[in-house]
Amino acid sequence: MSLTVVEHKKLLINNEWRDAAGGKTMDVVNPATEEVIATVASADASDVDDAVNAARAALNGPWGRMSARERGRLVSRLADRLMERADEVARLETLHNGKPIFESRQIEIPAAAECLEYYAGWADKIMGETIPVKGNYLTYTLREPLGVVAAIVPWNFPLLLAAWKVAPALACGNVVILKPASQTPLTAIALGEIAVEVGLPPGVLNVITGPGSSVGQAIVEHPGIDKIAFTGDTSTGKGIMRAAADTLKKITLELGGKSPNIVLADADIDAALRGATTGIFYGKGEVCAAGSRLLVDKSIKSEFMDKLAARAKKMVAGDPLDPKTRYGALASKKQLETVQRYVAIAKNEGATLVAGGERADIGTGKGYFFQPTVFDQVAPDATISREEIFGPVLATIEFTDLDEAIALANASQYGLAAAVWTRDIKKAHYMARKLQAGTVWINTYNIYDTAAPFGGYKASGFGREMSSHALEHYTQVKSVWVDLNM
Fold this sequence. Notes:
By secondary structure, the chain is α/β, with parallel strands linked by helices. It has two domains: 11-255 and 460-479, Aldehyde Dehydrogenase, Chain A, domain 1 (3-Layer(aba) Sandwich), CATH 3.40.605; 260-450, Aldehyde Dehydrogenase, Chain A, domain 2 (3-Layer(aba) Sandwich), CATH 3.40.309. It contains 15 helices and 22 strands. The chain is globular, with a radius of gyration of 23 Å. The chain starts with 10 loop residues before the first strand and ends with a strand.
């Protein structure tokens, strides 16, 4: 396994690369080797203040005066340049996250570029309306940018989830402060480099790295920031919501999940097996919408679990930089310890381990690798049935009829996603209406497109990312009345 050392990276404020005001730095660790691969600036509240001032100046200056079509061209250039640098950026994504280079290069970097391209096309199509009011008035609306948007993104899909926020924000005419997770800052910094390269005016996109406990808090509390777009765990989202109340910031939250993957007795078993495997083991299970609860009809469960356990045992962790690897390292030591703790809890609570359950070794003796893990005979109220693990651990629950499956699926504080496997189209649509989730997949799993909205019900957050619906969260509506009485 090769080691790539990245030079010290700085903050991007006003199109200038600068050290943190306090001079602090933090290490970036490759989770596959446990080695430091980079140092980045660790910002403080004064750096946040500088970024807000730079962003506000851009909003009131060249960016605010730029035509919508020209904004769209610049966002489109971001997409083009990202794909020109895709090999390099994908390598960075794998180095600091541990995901296979196949996922980074073939799926996630292209998806981020596609998101930028999609919203570039929206820039000059965001329009107001004329309203037929009573009286002799011309009444119309303007849809205007919110202002300074802070995008706070997690470590599981560092660049893709940044694009989900940065793209619509810029297309709508906002300016952005991007705060990546402290574990995975390298691709956000690369996006900042690309923004400078393609000619975004100073202050339009600022990249601030540092701990969420200090920098993130400073962002949330800053009175000069108009909106927070956050993806992360539910407890942090609640804290952001409380803190944002003092300045009445607009917020959108895409939070945790414990998504049910439901296999009915009449399902295509082979397709459902592939979907169950992909649902929990893609991205090492470090996916908000992971199908971490497998609900299987009692009449087919024995056969299904035998086949699923065999599939899980065939999945072998490997060097994330190897193009043939399909299962990489967990993103951090902390996350490895979290997964180990939940596996121990599941065993203690009486669940039956049918695959995995141990730390994996790829032959180096290093890295935060963990085997794909499947538990059977899991009680609906068991800890691993209720709490988000954010790792490759599947909890299997049986049911006997359709209504029980729906009740079990909805018996969660979360409501991000769900899936149904059946050959009966009536059952599929019936369940899609009954399931309390922002996304319901039928006979598939983990399929996304920038044109389709994504977001949660209940404790999985509110607001929608991607699609035209995201534009509503980055604009505000102004009514204009003109007296035409003679």
